[in-house]
């Protein structure tokens, strides 16, 4: 039980003010609270079973730079996705998209956690303590921490205009994406950076072109 409570407390504290908590707040202004919490829980459970397993079996062999770099590209893609034109439903508190909200929240959090400090903290804990209590404790700690952000997001969301929510979410995704790419790819070659920027540009063209076609339609 010591490992469980230690993991819960450490991950709860690590998550306070972290980028995934800010993402939770942003998503909570747009989607149903139950959907957001469910997506966070299952994404956290999936990522942390991986993290605890890595820490238990291989310790510090995780290629952190590549994971962080790819996660950064994914964040920027989500930023373009948001700019494509989600709209707030006043009756249900959900955004109208062509994607199931649960899978959007799940995939956002899954990618957000890759290379994040809470993931690395879970790996570190699992190198010292048993796998199961670290996995469960870290999952509960993160869900509780992000649950606080969801409550705040739901309260704020009723007072924020739709465009502010959309632009604010995009700025968060772009900022964290750019930072993750820089943090993970500082030692990468110019060719890798060019390939990453090409992927980012293609994401922008794809999502913004769909938004333009949708407005014309």
Mind sketching the topology for me?
Layout: H1 2-15, H2 19-28, H3 33-57, H4 64-83, H5 101-113, H6 117-126, H7 131-157, H8 162-185, H9 190-216
Helix pairs in contact: 1-6, 1-7, 2-5, 2-7, 2-8, 3-5, 3-6, 3-7, 4-5, 4-8, 4-9, 6-7
Question: How would you describe this structure to a colleague?
Answer:
By secondary structure, the protein is mainly alpha-helical. The protein has one domain (2-216). Helix content is 78%, strand content 0%. It contains nine helices and no strands. α1 packs antiparallel against α6 (117-126). The N and C termini lie far apart (58 Å). Residues 86-94 have low confidence and may be disordered.
For the residues shown, what is the average pLDDT? 78
What Rg do the Cα atoms give?
18 Å
Compressed to H and E, one letter per element, the order equals HHHHHHHHH
- Give the strand content: under 5%
Oligomer kind: single chain
The number of helical elements comes to 9
Relative helix content: over 70%
Question: End-to-end span in angstroms?
Answer: 58 Å
Shape: globular
Strand count, sense and barrel status of the largest sheet are:
none
- Catalogue the unreliable spans: 86-94
Summed up, the domain count is 1
Number of distinct beta strands: 0
* Secondary structure category: mainly alpha
């Amino acid at each position: 039980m010591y490992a469980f409570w230690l993991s819960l407390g450490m991950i709860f504290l690590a998550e306070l003010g972290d980028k995934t908590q800010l993402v939770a707040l942003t998503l909570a202004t747009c989607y149903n609270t139950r959907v957001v919490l469910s997506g966070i829980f299952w994404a956290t459970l999936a990522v942390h079973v991986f993290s605890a397993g890595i820490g238990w079996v291989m310790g510090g062999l995780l290629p952190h730079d590549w994971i962080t770099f790819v996660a950064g590209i994914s964040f920027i893609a989500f930023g373009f996705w948001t700019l494509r034109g989600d709209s707030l439903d006043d009756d249900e508190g959900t955004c109208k998209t062509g994607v199931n909200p649960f899978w959007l929240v799940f995939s956002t959090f899954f990618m957000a956690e890759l290379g994040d400090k809470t993931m690395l903290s879970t790996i570190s804990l699992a190198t010292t303590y048993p796998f199961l209590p670290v996995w469960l404790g870290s999952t509960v700690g993160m869900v509780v921490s992000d649950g606080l952000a969801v409550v705040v997001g739901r309260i704020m969301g009723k007072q924020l205009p739709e465009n502010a929510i959309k632009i604010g979410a995009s700025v968060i995704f772009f900022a964290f994406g750019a930072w993750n790419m820089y943090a993970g790819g500082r030692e990468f070659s110019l060719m890798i950076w060019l390939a990453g920027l090409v992927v980012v540009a293609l994401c922008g063209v794809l999502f913004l072109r769909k938004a333009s076609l949708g407005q014309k339609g």
